[in-house]
Amino acid sequence: MKVDAGKIVELVRKMKPLFADSSRVSQVKEKGTCDYVTQVDIQVQKLVKEGLYSMYPQVQFMGEEQDNSAIDRSGDFWILDPVDGTTNLIHDFRHSTLSLAYAEAGEVVLGIVYQPYTDELFIAKKGEGAFLNGDPIHVSGAETLSESLVTIGTSPYYHELADWNFKVFKEVFLSCQDIRRLGSAALDMAYVACGRVDAFFEAILQPWDFSAAKLLIEEAGGKVTDFAGKELPVGMPGAVLAGNGKINEELLRILSEK
Asked: 3-state SS of the chain: helix, strand, coil percent to 5?
């Protein structure tokens, strides 16, 4: 089913005030190890889901704050992370985002990543390029890892990966210009799409973390794969390597050797 991207953008932008609602931010529950949910997460998902359903009642909905076991991943469905970077939100570290993707017949064709604090809205439609607040964006031109700024994710819910993660981080740190750990995979990947950073990787991500931003990067000229260099299945979790396409192979060598 074709969807109206303009109406979807309007709906997403309406969520901005909720990110600054301290009364909702302060209502925190722990779902698991270092995995938190606030009333902002819950309310944003509720409002976006209701808004999408009012426009497209027949389209399935996959969201972080619900059970998604019944989703038919070969069909049409939304993929929402209401707040990617909840720990940042709790600490008023203003690097959190709303991430929304639309998959049509099992293929992501629309991706939106919205940073409410800076009012930056990244959007991509399959085959039509990627944009930031209406202006075209492209991945960086960095040719080698040694000239690159790389963002990383620590998979904080999986402490058993700590030794592997930090071994890899050290190797990448010694091979690139510098690394950053900012705490929102979707926003970090959007920064890859617009060339602010050259690559991002994380050992385990959920589909709502990366689906929208993956399309952004691909439409901006970059490449997103798993750690074996293979395509990521739509609507499924996995390891994610996102880059400008020129330094991906260097990073893959490090990731596959560790």
From this structure: 35, 30, 35
Domain span at 179: 143-254
Sign of the four-CA dihedral 194, 62, 54, 107: positive
**CATH label of the domain that carries residue 113:** 3.30.540.10
Residues 6+ apart with CB under 8 A from 231: 225
Residues 180 and 65 in one domain: no
* CATH number (domain holding residue 244): 3.40.190.80
Helix, strand, or coil (residue 96) = coil
Do 26 and 118 share a domain, yes or no? Answer: yes
Closest to 196 in 3D by CA, of 240, 242, 154, 150: 150
What does the pLDDT look like over 132-178, one tens digit per residue?
999 999 999 999 999 999 999 998 888 999 999 999 999 999 999 99
**What global pTM score does this model have?**
0.94
Q: Residue 20: phi, psi to the nearest 5?
A: -100, 5
Give the CB-side neighbour count of residue 168, counting CA atoms within 13 A.
26
Q: At what angle do helices 162-175 and 248-257 cross, to 10 degrees?
A: 140
One domain for residues 9 and 124: yes
Torsion of CA 128, 131, 134, 137, to 10 degrees: -110
Tell me: do 184 and 212 sit in the same domain: yes
- What DSSP element (H or E) covers 250? helix 248-257
User: How many structural domains are present in the chain?
Assistant: 2
pLDDT digits (tens, 9 = 90+) for 81-116: 999 999 999 999 999 999 999 999 999 999 999 999
- Picking from 212, 172, 216, the residue whose alpha carbon sits closest to that of residue 196 is 216
